[in-house]
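User:
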Amino acid sequence: MIAFSDWFPNALVGVTFLSLGLIKIYGWRKGIIGGGGKPATCRLMGRCPSWSKPVNIGAIMLFLAIGLVNLVIMILALHKR
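Assistant: Predicted structure:
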């Protein structure tokens, strides 16, 4: 049986960052603007108004990449045993 510590940290980080990236994409498609003084949902889903469009897209891609890489590492750890 595979150890809990071999797969759970990567699963937790992967699901968290992938979810955050998908929520940001949803907010981008809906045109939600985040920033200070806004409700928590707008801050979570919205793009940063002080950043340029490429920086906002880069942050979303970084969240998705971190999530996917961690999920792939978890899957490889599960199949290794």
